[in-house]
Amino acid sequence: MMHRPEQVSLREVAPRDGLQNEPPVPTGDKIRLLDALSRTGLSRIEAVSFVHPRAVPQMADAAEVWEAAEKHPGIRYSALAPNLKGVQRALDAGFSAIELVVSASDTHNRANVGRGTDESIAELADVVQLAHERLAEVEAIIATSFGCPYEGDVDPARVAGIVDAAAAAGVDRVAFGDTTGMATPRRVNDLLDAVLSGVGTELPMLMHFHDTRGTALANLLTAMDRGVVEFDASVGGLGGCPYAPGASGNVATEEVVHMLHDMGIETGVDLDALLGAAALAQEVVGRELESGVLRAGPRTRLTERP
Ligand code: MG
């Protein structure tokens, strides 16, 4: 008999990951979306990233957005950074949860943050020291954990090695990113086999799936059945795949919530409020989003008979 959790912790990533992969939107719209999400019952939100504005113009107003946004006491807000400088800015802006991204694929890391994977890992200890001095937690996000658009398959043993290095550097948590939607249930199992035999097993683990090839919910269930209870999701599925224009990106939060609640698994999220935020996300980016639950409504919403 499969052991399933009573509760799953979702981190909403639309304000950062979602909007970073869309054409830039006005600061006021970002704040409106962030505030709407803060009122849905979500307990974790990735709010902004502190990256160079030339590399990512979408996040140039990160500090301004965060300054104006509602901060709900029950919500753990986080900021993503590509390097120590970004981490410093995130701490200065008042964040107490920091995510540092490092790609398992060296080619992807160079494309994403302009240096090799080893260089990013070497900086982790400094990031952890700085953050801990400021009483903030650090999560290492391992991008391209399930495959790389430049290198193809990524060896799970390599990802497990990065988890071990991150643990040795003192990070508080670790996340695995399916950056371009290359994961399948088999690859989720292979990755967990490799990681759970390493020394990083004590760290809380989160998985970030993309629905680029339609496997996101299957991957999530597979990981959940192996004991993973933390997942990223993006309202409305906001944020396309950066390597496949027009394709879906992040798994939609309302699709995850809709499925889990029907299975009796709690998320703390009010699905109706979340659908309202998804509709707002759609309005903000000015196009129809790729979410089945947003388009069709929840399965409990009946159609009037003719
Ligand atoms: Mg993503």
Secondary-structure topology with pairs:
Layout: E1 9-12, H1 14-20, H2 27-38, E2 44-49, H3 62-68, E3 76-81, H4 84-92, E4 97-103, H5 106-113, H6 117-133, E5 137-143, H7 156-169, E6 173-177, H8 185-196, E7 205-208, H9 216-225, E8 230-233, H10 253-262, H11 271-285, H12 292-296
Parallel strand pairs: 1-2, 1-8, 2-3, 3-4, 4-5, 5-6, 6-7, 7-8
The structure holds magnesium ion.
Based on secondary structure, the structural category is: alpha/beta
Helix content: 40-55%
Task: State the end-to-end CA separation.
Answer: 43 Å
The CATH class turns out to be: Alpha Beta
Brief descriptors of the model:
single chain; 306 residues; alpha/beta; TIM Barrel; eight-stranded parallel beta barrel; 8 strands; 14% strand; globular; binds magnesium ion
